[in-house]
Amino acid sequence: MTADALVYHPTVAHYLRFVGTTVGRDKLLRTLQYFSRFYAWYLFRTNSPTRLIAPFDAIKKQFALTRKALRLGKNVEHFKAAAAAMDDTKSRDEFLRYCAVGRQLGYAMYLSFDMATYLDAAGIWKLETAKRLQKEAYRAWFVGLLFNTMAGVYTLWGLRQREQEVNKTDGEGVVESKKIQRERNATNLQLISDVCDLTIPGSALGYANLDDGIVGLAGTMSSLISVWATWKKTA
User: Fold this and answer.
1) Is the dihedral of CA 106, 112, 113, 119 positive or negative?
2) Which of 84, 96, 92 is nearest to 155 (CA)?
3) Distance (Å, rounded) from C-alpha 84 to C-alpha 104?
4) What is the rounded CA–CA span in Å between residue 199 and residue 192?
């Protein structure tokens, strides 16, 4: 009976739906990848023996390569999303629409350059331009994240303006106020995730002098936020 209760528990079914998605598996791998990046740095800084550092360094590298394979072909999705955002002239604020286009194009170009470096990263076929292409990938990702960050700040400003116009003394005003608070919480969470992610391409491109400890912690934080968001979507 205990085994049946565990097997048919709703949480188990939810977990299966979560790991049944490519996004769910990717976010779990990403969390482990960036935590390993941080922990390998921590062990190195505390003068731990190489035998303790090596497993986490291997996880960081192997999971990064696995995730690169999972992303193959995903650039098409973002090119399509950019086109859809450009055509969406009715339901979006103009500034947010252009930010959405910029974000999706940035991600699409990042994934395109990233895809071009896969064979080299996997050791299948060495490419002389691999380092330059990876640098362009990071630059495109940085631009996409900047657009998303600007959209988040603008959205928060818009929510503040809406809140000032709400009459909280009547029922409709109370409902609207709660709706605004939910939107604000979601926007704040996404903004934290984007700022954390900016440290990754920012560090790789030399825009900020950050060590693997900071980048690893920031990547772990944004990954956990993504895991939580994906878990909610698969509920």
Assistant:
1) positive
2) 96
3) 10
4) 11
CA-wise closest residue to 197 among 152, 146, 128, 130: 146
Residue 28 carries which side chain, given as an amino acid letter?
L
pLDDT in tens, 165-216: 887 777 788 888 899 999 999 999 999 999 999 999 999 999 999 999 999 9
Structure tokens at 164: 């000032």
Under 8 Å between Cβ of 60 and 36: yes
Residue (of 10, 4, 9) closest to 235 by Cα position: 10
Amino acid at 198: L
| 3-state percent helix, strand, coil for the chain, nearest multiple of 5 | 80, 0, 20
52: three-class secondary structure by DSSP: helix
Distance CA 113, CA 107 (A): 10
